[in-house]
Write a structure and sequence with these properties.
The chain has 168 residues and is α/β, with parallel strands linked by helices. It has one domain: YqgF/RNase H-like domain (Nucleotidyltransferase, domain 5), CATH 3.30.420. It is built from six helices and six strands; from the N terminus they run H-E-H-E-E-E-H-E-H-E-H-H. A six-stranded mixed β-sheet has the order 1-6-5-2-3-4, with helices on both faces. Strand 2 and strand 3 form a beta hairpin. Helix 5 crosses helix 6. The radius of gyration is 15 Å and the shape is globular. The protein starts with a helix and ends with a helix.
Length: 168
């Protein structure tokens, strides 16, 4: 079974991530930050990302317990984490923080984790919200889960497009 082969994998490989699509359940998207974790969930068909919630970060174990609740209640089969690369594509301190977070939660949840380049996600979302008349103070409230939704949707689109191009 290919799922067992990727059961405890952290990857940048879209094909490996796509392997989790055969398992019934949802995919959890996470935007990591110092103060907040933005969460999103895929639909059961793994086509659409939907905003889920924002977790205010506290101690590591409290963050894990809150994540555990979302993972269990929503039958999560894999996780996508935004990787905040520098503009030139290199990894900086924020990237290392996301990688460390992924290593820690992979040990706990034993689910495949896929990194998705999240450069410019927050900036793009803020611009769209401002363009749509949302006030700055209200943007901050939903930015993390909106970013997580963008990250997850990007990964879903890439994996689904890969699937469709392989069928042609």
């Amino acid at each position: 079974n290919s799922i067992n082969a990727i059961k405890s994998t952290i990857t940048y490989d879209l094909n490996i991530f796509k392997g989790s699509f055969s398992k019934k359940g949802k995919i959890l998207g996470i935007d990591t930050g110092k103060k907040y974790l933005g969460l999103s969930l895929s639909d059961i068909n793994k086509r659409i990302a939907l905003a889920h919630k924002t977790i205010i970060r506290k101690k590591y174990i409290e963050d894990i317990e809150k994540l555990k609740s979302s993972v269990e209640k929503n039958n999560v089969v894999s996780i996508v984490i935004g990787l905040p690369l520098n503009k030139d594509g290199t990894k900086g301190p924020r990237s290392q923080s996301a990688i460390t977070f992924a290593v820690n939660i992979e040990k706990y949840f034993k689910l495949p984790i896929y990194f998705c380049d999240e450069r410019f996600s927050s900036i793009g979302i803020q611009r769209e919200m401002l363009k749509n008349g949302i006030k700055k103070k209200n943007i901050k409230k939903s930015l993390d889960e909106s970013s997580a939704t963008w990250i997850l949707q990007s990964a879903l689109d890439a994996a689904n497009n890969l699937e469709e191009s392989n069928e042609k």
